[in-house]
Design brief:
Blueprint lengths: L1 H10 L4 H17 L3 H14 L11 H6 L2 H10 L3 H4 L4 E7 L4 E8 L2 E6 L8 E5 L1 H8 L5 H5 L5 E3 L1 H8 L15
Parallel strand pairs: 1-4
Antiparallel strand pairs: 1-2, 2-3, 4-5
Helix pairs in contact: 1-2, 2-3
Length: 180
C-alpha cells in the first residue's frame, strides 16, 4: 500500500488523501519493525507527509575537533560553494601547534587540495593556530579579526582570509526524506 501511495504523492503533492494514507502505512511499518533505524525512518517519513517536519539541529563541533587533520581538510572540501570559489586561487600554510603538524591548503579550480608535511615557499597567508580555533573559524563562531590582529599567529592579507572563509557553506540538514 505504501508503494502505491508513494507514486500517487509523487504524481500530485497536493493529494492530501494519498499523503495521509501513505503516512498511515509508514506509521504502521514503523510500529511493526524491530530495528530502531528503520523505525525512525518510517516515523519521520509519516510526520513529514502529515506536514509535521521534524526539526534537525546538528552540532558537529566535537566530531570536527577529533578528526585527523587530513579528514578535517577533506570535510572542508565538501563545504566549498563552487560559485563562490570559482576563479580564486589561495595558498595557505598552516602550523597546527597542538598537533605539531605543518601543512598547506591550496584552493585551485574550486577544489581544496591539502598537503600534509608541506609548506609553500610563498603562500598567500600563514596561520599558526590550534585546531579548536581553526574549527570555530570554519563554523563562523570566531571572528577572523581576532586571528588576523595577532601578527605572531597570522601573516598575510586579512582580506584573503575573509575571502577564503567566504567560500564555505554549511550542509542543509532539513532535507525531505519522503516528499520530492
Amino acid at each position: 500500500m505504501e508503494e502505491v501511495c508513494k507514486h500517487l504523492v509523487f504524481a500530485d503533492l497536493n493529494n492530501k488523501n494519498a499523503r495521509y494514507l501513505e503516512a498511515h502505512a509508514l506509521e504502521q511499518l514503523g510500529y511493526q519493525t524491530e530495528n530502531g533505524t528503520w523505525r525512525n525512518n518510517f516515523l519521520v517519513g509519516a510526520a513529514e507527509l502529515r506536514g509535521n517536519k521534524v526539526p534537525t539541529a546538528v552540532d558537529n563541533t566535537d566530531a570536527l575537533l577529533n578528526m585527523p587533520t587530513e579528514l578535517l581538510f577533506e570535510f572542508m572540501g565538501l563545504l566549498i560553494e563552487k560559485n563562490r570559489a570559482e576563479g580564486k586561487e589561495i595558498k595557505i600554510n598552516l602550523n597546527l601547534t597542538d598537533r605539531n603538524e605543518k601543512c598547506n591548503m591550496a584552493l585551485e579550480d574550486s577544489v581544496l587540495i591539502p598537503r600534509m608535511n608541506y609548506q609553500e615557499k610563498s603562500p598567500d597567508m600563514e596561520l599558526t593556530i590550534y585546531i579548536p580555533i581553526l574549527v570555530t573559524l570554519l563554523l563562523g563562531e570566531t571572528n577572523y579579526d581576532e586571528i588576523t590582529s595577532d601578527k605572531s599567529k597570522f601573516k598575510g592579507n586579512s582580506e584573503d582570509l575573509k575571502e577564503f572563509l567566504g567560500i564555505f557553506s554549511g550542509f542543509d540538514y532539513g532535507f525531505n526524506m519522503v516528499i520530492p
